[in-house]
Amino acid sequence: GDGELAVLYRAFEREVGRPLSPMETEQIRAWRSDTDPVLILEALRRAVMMGKHNFKYIDRILLEWRKNNLRTLEAVAEHEREFASRRATRPRTGTREDHRKKALIKSLYVT
Fold first, then answer.
1. N or C terminus: which one in the chain shows less Cβ crowding within 10 Å?
2. Based on the number of CB atoms within 10 Å of its own CB, is 75 exposed (0-12), middle (13-18) or buried (19 or more)?
3. DSSP letter string over 13-73?
4. Residue 36: Cβ-neighbour burial (10 angstroms; 0-12, 13-18, 19+)
5. What is the SS3 assignment for 62?
6. Given CA atoms 56, 41, 76, 46 in this order, what sign does their dihedral have?
C-alpha cells in the first residue's frame, strides 16, 4: 500500500542522497505494482554495493529476477546457489596446461 511506497521512497532517497524526481517515484510505483518491496530493496542494496545508483541498473536486476520467476528473497538466493554450483562443476577452459598443449601442437605444424 501507500505505507510500503513511502518506505521505498525513503530508502531510495537515503541511498541517492537527494529527493526523488517524479519520474523516479513513478518507476518505484511501477516496480511495486508487480514486485515484493523486499525484492525492490534488495535490488537497491545490490546496486549500491556495486556503486551503481541509477534506476536502470536496479530495473535490470528486477527484470532478470522476473524473467527467472524469482518472487522472494529465498528464491533469489536459491537461484544464485544453483548458478554458483553449476559454475563450480563446469570444467575450466583455458588452463595453463591447455595453452601449453596448444602451443606445442601449433609449433609442430609451423614450417
1. C
2. middle
3. HHHHTSPPPHHHHHHHHHHHHHS-HHHHHHHHHHHHHTT---HHHHHHHHHHHHHTT--SH
4. middle
5. helix
6. positive
